[in-house]
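Researcher: Next entry: Tetratricopeptide repeat protein (Streptomyces inhibens).
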Amino acid sequence: MASPAARSASSRTVPARPNIAFRQLRGRLSPGEFAAAVRRSAREIGEQVSCDARYVGRVESGEIRCPNYAYERVFRHMFPGLTLPDMGFAPREAVRGRGARTAAVSAVPLATDPDHRDTCIQICEESDVLRRAFITGGPAAALGIAALHPIEAAAAATSAPFPGPRTPPGGRAGAAEATAVEQAVRQIRLLDDRHGAEGIYRRATQPLRAAYELLDSDVQRRSVSDRLHAGAGELAITVGWLAHDSGRFDDARSHYAEALATARVCGDAALEAHAFCNTAFLARDAGRPREAVRAAQAAQQAAKQLASPRLLSLLALREAGGWAGLSDRAGCEQALARAERLFAVGPRDGDPEWMTFYGEAELAGLEAQCWAALGDAERAADYARRAVALQDPHFTRNIALFTAELAADLAASGAPEEAAVAGMQVLALLEQVRSARIRTMLDGTARRLRAYRDSAPVAGFLARHAESADAPTARQQA
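Model: Predicted structure:
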């Protein structure tokens, strides 16, 4: 996610108008007292926001024209019946730069429950808004973009590159260029949350190259230089993650190393912790568990100077994953206990914005992966069920990931028919999501279930899985 500075700068693309309606909703509470009320309300609905007096001030000044989805849910909980315009905010479609919808968007239901179908429709509608931010029309239309799968369309629109930084006139970079880097990070991560990495990785390297070119430009203000370094480092991590999720482990390792070097150059502890965090994750997936432990411990060392128990919780989980890969049950359990204890402290204002994905669902999902690696399939399945049930609909890719984890755990624990049902749900989600990592997990489940092909649900899943493997994918298009 973008930094507060990024959202601030992006909101100044139009003149700010004081949000009088929101100021009236605050009533006699001070900004600090109101921020505390916002955080309490967020906890009531299982949301996490780092609201403080400064954020309230930015809203009331009109600097924040429209809140993000997490804040919107909290505000609607606090003020039932009020819409965003009622609270003084601009409609989201206006802020996103998109006109009214002209066509309905269909969605693949996750289950027969109507609530799930409504959720899927909402996901697709929001996803369409994001996709159109990357396809600006003109020459893109001549490429037949509308006829392609939405993800393939984004990948094919080579004439409509990702929004990103450009070399400034005269070779001098300023706040506008720093903001462009931060916006590129935010928009790429939003698209990845919905659709996974495949199909966007190659194009995401374009703004990354531009961002690092800006680091060599003439920057006169230290604050701008710091933003450029932090933004370029976060963009390197973001692109590294796209490579990681696409199965390009060597590319991912290179991007994470680039981010780490950037962090060391500018003395950015938060960026260093993030780079080591992702390096630990990659090492675990690449079969280097001892490196995963060391990288996670290095990340925790860097994060000690940051006021974020939630970050330390996530890093403890990264360490636990490494211990699980080493079959060290005691080390894993100790790290898991530390992760749960730190998570229970709750969100803090110092939590990095890139951690918006880390809630109860992610905690449960990562614990499931640890237990699966330790060979405790039944316990892993219990945690995976919890992860799927708790996952925010915004994170479509993670819903697919944890459902794939559930399918694998059920297959390993001797519940083939349940595994097949979960596998079918993943296949439906893979029509929206492109992730080599998830596909690999599902392939493993299919291999395990072949011994149960006499079961009708299993046979149906295996047939559908085989069909999906033969279909063109965004991976082949990239």
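Model: Note for the record: DSSP finds 24 helices and no strands in the chain.
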